[in-house]
Design brief:
The structure is a single chain. 77% of the residues lie in helices and 2% in strands. The protein has 501 residues and is mostly helical. It starts with a strand and ends with a strand. It is globular, with a radius of gyration of 22 Å. The protein has a three-stranded mixed β-sheet. InterPro entries: MFS, MFS_dom, MFS_trans_sf, Tet-R_TetA/multi-R_MdtG-like. Pfam families: MFS_1.
């Protein structure tokens, strides 16, 4: 690795800058969701244009992640991080002053591109700035930062919307990234030793392919999954991604080095956030709707209940990082976390309309603890398997799997819920309203029973996915036979980067 010094190296400031940015990016996702009703009322919009305040961000976030990571390796991780932060801040500021929903949607798409730059290069900065036990602690802190953003986002946004209006939410995100930018000068620059031109064709094909695939998943519930438009989007996206793989196998300077994907342990670690999406993120998305619709909770109370699941995400990563530094295998902790997802989702089937909070407290805590145990540890273990010159590419691919799976799995999960509710209420239109928390269509007890039945079946399904994922990932993380003397997924020994002026 070639490390280019720029200003003074301050590891503590480097960590603080990256953590602040990493907390803000998920905050912009969960916080914006709370602001949607206020946006719709103020801008006199509803339906698809309003929903694209979320979709535009998620679409560009997922599509540009891998590209941002590969570009960071070539142009410099600090430069990519600073550029991504600036773009995110500019998009958030534009969203705060947008006079109409179309410009707001475009501003959110711009923020998503910036968020991709922040996530792809931020993890790579930590991977190259820290080694050994310090790296494990840094990635554990990164997991906590992401948990803070996810947990605090709805509460903070709700307070801002209620006191200053929805525009203050996006203004806050811009201000936080502006603060992070003030510390970028203390981050040491690093890049790959060889800097070929970025594969522009590969970039275009990948962005278009993943973009079409995510767009198809997002539009599936709105257009109907069997519609020609959705089929065309999904088929076109899948076809372009296959073409991308073919192009990368022949490229001298690929956007994605396929040897990374062929490494079974690295790929298994990239599948951890995909399984986490099934076991954790789906509950964050749909459980509040269930509590509001069937149990009559206010939005604020539903958000408070979710603290049972999000609080462990803030507290557990440092604990699991400390266990790794004391010799506990990341393979063991990651498998345990996925099994906790399975157990928590299966246990949560005790849920019922008007049920007591104590009945669901246990499964929510178990699920949240599972997320907290794996957050940070999985990312750190993955980066320990990667050559330093590929840190940005590896981080980009890892987060592409994370964000891309969230967009697709959440859309599919919602469609499954609607279909299951439809079997009880007899109308797809009514089922869609129930899944959105609206049980005002008459016979609320019957509708609540239909929602409960559907959610329980979905929970059993996600529990099965998590259990199967735990077994498969545990097997894939076994150390190679030819290196049986090497501990599985160790925090790699400290290395001293070579500095060049």
């Amino acid at each position: 690795m070639t490390t280019v010094s720029a200003g003074r190296s301050r590891p503590a400031i480097t960590l603080a800058v990256v953590l602040l940015a990493f907390a803000t990016v998920p905050m912009s996702i969960s916080g914006a969701a709370v602001a949607l009703p206020g946006i719709g009322e103020d801008l006199h919009t509803a339906g698809a244009p309003l929903q694209w305040v979320m979709n535009a961000y998620n679409l560009t976030f997922a599509s540009f992640m891998l590209v941002a990571g590969s570009a960071a390796d070539l142009v410099g991780r600090r430069r990519a991080f600073a550029t991504g932060s600036a773009v995110f801040a500019a998009g958030s500021l534009a969203a705060a002053v947008a006079p109409g929903v179309v410009l707001l949607d475009l501003a959110r798409a711009l923020s998503g591109i910036g968020a991709a730059g922040v996530f792809a290069s931020g993890g790579a900065i930590l991977a190259t700035a820290f080694d050994g036990a310090a790296r494990t602690r840094a990635f554990a802190a990164l997991g906590s930062a992401a948990g803070v953003g996810l947990a605090v986002g709805p509460t903070l946004s709700g307070w801002l919307v209620g006191t200053l209006g929805w525009r203050a939410t996006f203004g806050l995100h811009a201000a936080l990234l502006a603060v992070a930018l003030t510390g970028v000068g203390f981050v040491v620059e690093s890049r790959a030793p060889h800097r070929p031109r970025l594969d522009a064709t590969g970039v275009l094909v990948f962005v278009a392919g993943l973009g079409l695939l995510v767009l198809g998943a997002v539009q599936g519930p709105q257009w109907d999954w069997t519609s020609p438009g959705v089929a065309a989007l999904l088929a076109g996206g899948a076809g372009l991604l296959v073409l991308f793989v073919v192009l990368q196998s022949r490229s001298a300077a690929p956007v994605l080095d396929l040897t990374l994907v062929r490494d079974r342990r690295f790929f298994a670690l990239c599948m951890v956030p995909v399984v986490s999406t099934f076991g954790f993120v789906t509950l964050l998305t749909y459980l509040p709707t269930y509590l509001v619709g069937t149990s009559g909770f206010s939005a604020q109370r539903a958000g408070t209940v979710l603290l049972l699941m999000t609080a462990p995400v803030l507290l557990a990563p440092p604990l699991s990082g400390g266990l790794v530094n004391r010799g506990v295998s990341p393979r063991t902790l990651i498998t345990l976390s996925l099994l906790m997802f399975a157990g928590g989702n299966a246990w949560l089937t005790v849920i019922s309309p008007g049920g007591s909070l104590t009945a669901i407290a246990g499964p929510l805590l178990m699920t949240g603890l599972g997320a907290g145990v794996s957050f940070g540890v999985g990312d750190g273990a993955a980066m320990s398997l990667v050559e330093p010159q590929q840190a940005g590419m590896a981080t980009g691919f890892l987060n592409t799997m994370r964000i891309g799976s969230e967009a697709i799995v959440i859309a599919v999960y919602g469609a499954v819920l609607v279909s299951l509710i439809e079997t009880r209420v007899g109308s797809r239109e009514l089922a869609a309203k129930v899944a959105a928390g609206d049980l005002s269509g008459g016979g609320s007890a019957v509708l609540a029973d239909g929602f409960t039945h559907a959610l329980r079946l979905a929970l059993y399904g996600t529990a099965a996915v998590c259990a199967i994922g735990a077994v498969a990932i545990f097997a894939a993380l076994a150390p190679p036979r030819r290196t049986t003397t090497t501990a599985p997924l160790p925090p790699e020994p400290a290395r001293q980067p070579t500095k060049a002026a």
